[in-house]
Amino acid sequence: MFYTIGEIAKKLNIPPSTLRYYDKEGLLPFVERSSSGIRMFSDKDFESLSVIECLKKAGMSIKDIKRFMEWCAKGDSTIPERLSMFHRQKEQVLSQIAQLQETLEILAYKEWYYETALEAGTCAVHESMDLSDIPEGFRSIHQKLTQTSSENT
To answer: In Å, what is the CA distance from 153 to each residue of 54, 110, 113, 131?
Structure first.
């Protein structure tokens, strides 16, 4: 079964213009065209496009995704390069996750901070708090944030 660019874009939840861009950048050498030049996407193309979208979401550059697609076209001789690329990208994503987790923890701390301030009617309520008054899950974040600000003063 074949899909139009609009149909495959809808399945991938991306705009058709993204697929046209990928094609222009050489990421879609596998896509067949009708006699009138219309792109025709197969179920196998959907799998490749899903991987391209995954790599893009993982922060991989178009240049590196193109290299990956070229390696795929070369066949099994490039398996080590592809595996290495996925290892590197996985490490980058794990690092991003760790950074986002820290960001989420700070946001949760500041949410608690302002809920407490709202309840007291002032942010000054925090100035009289001991570390033991701060919920245990937020203590390390509080120390990290206040240590940095006290070092700058």
So the answer is: 44, 21, 21, 20
